[in-house]
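In the lab's daily routine, each protein ends up as an entry in a very long ledger. A line of letters takes care of the sequence, but it says nothing directly about the fold. The three-dimensional part falls to structure tokens, numbers that each stand for a local backbone shape. The outcome of that step, for a single protein, is printed below.
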Amino acid sequence: MKRQGWVEPDSTLAVRVQCRLAGVSRATVYARRTPQIACEVELLLCRLIDEQYTRRPFYGSRKMVEYLRTAGHVINRKRVQRMMQAMGLAGMAPGPNTSRAHPQHKN
């Protein structure tokens, strides 16, 4: 058994103290942790965001928050941004119209 296995995150003793006693770096202990499994609420919100994005791909995080709040969910914009980024979704925004000349420029 490696020394990293000696450190138990759920112990009453702090991880920092356990690492110092075992002589291992805290970074190695935190690096071997598995990511947390998303809860049902998180999966529901992701599904709702994905469905609404499929219907209206121009919705960004602000509009998505409005939609979710009208559906009865309490959520803030940063969480929606994080979820949309994790799913690879981004609102479509119009770009600059470079075809039209500015009226003050000479032709």
Observations:
- The CA atoms of residues 60 and 91 lie 4 Å apart.
- Helices lie at 15-22, 26-31, 40-55, 61-70, 77-87.
- Residues 40-87 form one domain.
